[in-house]
Amino acid sequence: QAAAAAPAAPNGCAANGHANGHANGADVTKAEPFVMLGGLEGHVEGILRCRRIVFIACGTSYHACLAARKTLEDFAAMPVVVELAGDFMDREAPVFRDDTCVFVSQSGETADTLRALEYAKNKGALCVGVTNTVGSAISNATHCGVHLNAGFEIGVASTKAYTSQIVALTMVALLLGADSRAKAPKRLEAMRALARLPEDVSRALALDEDMRALAGQLKDAQSLIFFGRGYNYSTALEAALKVKEVALIHSEGINAGEMKHGPLALVDENLPIIVIATQDGMHRKMVSVIEQLLARNGKLIILCNGDDPDMDAFAARGCSLIRVPATVDALQPIVNIVPLQLLSYHLTTLRGFNVDQPRNLAKSVTVT
Ligand code: M6R
């Protein structure tokens, strides 16, 4: 199975209805485009009335929730919290009857997430499932939800499920915010960007050869650091998880806003640092991060958009660039992760490991 894969196409049928099989999609061909998610039919009002949305997930699925959090906050104008299922249950965190808890899981069988679902259900919360597996325990036990329809994900490392989860959660956000007139232009822009996403992801996949060459340079590194913030904090976390999981290299994803609170001490001319600096709302801050890393002789690889003049200047100062297509902020993490998935894939094969079956890991973690 390829390490990187395009998300399910959002235009037409990104995901099937959860319980009732209604079609879903973002129809941008009509004058008034709209998002339809059959599996949430009859529940949208209830979700909009709730006190807050609580995302609960593990691993890569947790990262997808982090990537989509701000999109939900922006479009649905609701408080959103994101919880690791295991930690949530360790704390037996408070859940209220007027909460909506969203359980995101590729397999739909992850034990910690399932346990959190039973717990939240007992507290009376509305429970929504976002899974890639029809008939899974989580999709059966939730009140409503969205199926990803990303196809079987066979390799242990989650790749296409991650990108498809962000697509599905973005569509949920667009659906919840559908009545906001103030958000209408931004919503239309996001829907058009969703329709263009397959093309953007194809262009990111075309970086395969470049990523193989980069992996050749990085394969003997002791450690790799990824810096991101805002929407792309999740990209940093997810890329680091992929590198450690399949390439078996120590790797950390760090919120660039935390750089001065400790991580800066690690920076020298030897440690490879990948900085995610695409032209989203965090771009100016990331340019400043790059300046500060360069001032400490950091060895930088910058993931950026194709036509960013700031980055040309950094290339002239010795930084390597990974150029990806630009899209709206909410979808940029989907495009950004693709070359980093490819990088993990090539690091793995060049180091002689099995990309589909990393040591010590199972595809789905069904024990707590
Ligand atoms: O099936 P789930 O999405 O609930 O699985 C959660 C994690 O176990 C999973 O994402 C894991 O982190 C992946 N192997 C990462 O690639």
UniProtKB/TrEMBL annotation:
Keywords for this protein: Aminotransferase, Glutamine amidotransferase, Repeat, Transferase
SIS domain sequence ranges: 43-183, 214-358
Organism: Raphidocelis subcapitata
Keyword rRNA-binding annotated: no
Source organism superkingdom: Eukaryota
UniProt name for this protein: glutamine--fructose-6-phosphate transaminase (isomerizing)
GO terms of biological process kind: amino sugar biosynthetic process; fructose 6-phosphate metabolic process; protein N-linked glycosylation; UDP-N-acetylglucosamine metabolic process
Single GO term (MF): carbohydrate derivative binding
Species classification: Eukaryota, Viridiplantae, Chlorophyta, core chlorophytes, Chlorophyceae
Signal peptide segment: none
